[in-house]
Model the fold of this input.
Amino acid sequence: MPSVLVTREIFPETLQRLARHFQVTPNEGDLTWAPGALAQRLAGHEGVLVAGGERIDAALLDANPQLKAVCNMAVGYNNIDVPACTARGVLVTNTPDVLTETTADFGFALMMATARRIAEGEHYLRAGKWTRWSYDLLTGSDVHGATLGILGMGRIGQGIARRGALGFGMQVIYHNRSRLPADQEAPIHARYVSKEELLREADHLVLVLPYSPASHHAIGAGELALMKPTATLTNIARGGIVDDAALAEALKQGTIAAAGLDVFEGEPSVHPALLQVPNVVLTPHIASATVRTRRAMADLAADNLIAALTGGRAPTPVNPEVMA
Done:
């Protein structure tokens, strides 16, 4: 039987399923392995199931020439050097679609919590500061009827647009590497604009674009300065798309009103300055965190690994040319 490594703790049922096809080495302590330790633990394994945080690069691949498949339990795969895998004939897979609606739910919820200052309100109440009614107590900004800006209009971005347009009567504008076909724009009432226009017009800007070197710090001090001082920014995409230091300063100075962040540069570390400003809602990368969705992600990652190493065709390959 082929041997596979599972780099993080996962549902027992998923391990049991994999064990019917492979010799499985789990991470029983759910430890975080340094790159060198991961390379050593991969020795002798033909496949690996990673959880989105482990770095798979050329050095690791060269140390493990027996590796045939890297199956990511996430949509994003910026943790994997895909060209290096492709050059070595290693299949890379991810888990799209199964988390689209759950992540869109969370993105919209985080945007609303940011706009309506929900986290600030809870902290205020818990601290015993709520002693009387005041007309301006924790006043935020409306979501209904506002302009929703979306940077990155893939499946999740379209899900957020649909919630905004059809559920809250929002005016939806978006910017993407390429414009959507008219028949995809129409049902969600979305209007394509330049990135600059998106930044200037949005009342609530939501980031849902994939991370790449080209999108690194796509939102920095210059971009934040273009936004309305009443605007909010929500990032459920990937850490590194936002310059967290610049964002913390913008929040401190009132360049924008508030932010909601589920992802961070260098996570699980969070830039210390973000912890010092009250007008930011911080969550620990949990946009897909429902039991049903995480099970679906684990199942799809397992489907990919089983197919890749038993002569099948992986359902969601990132580099399908390897299967040719």
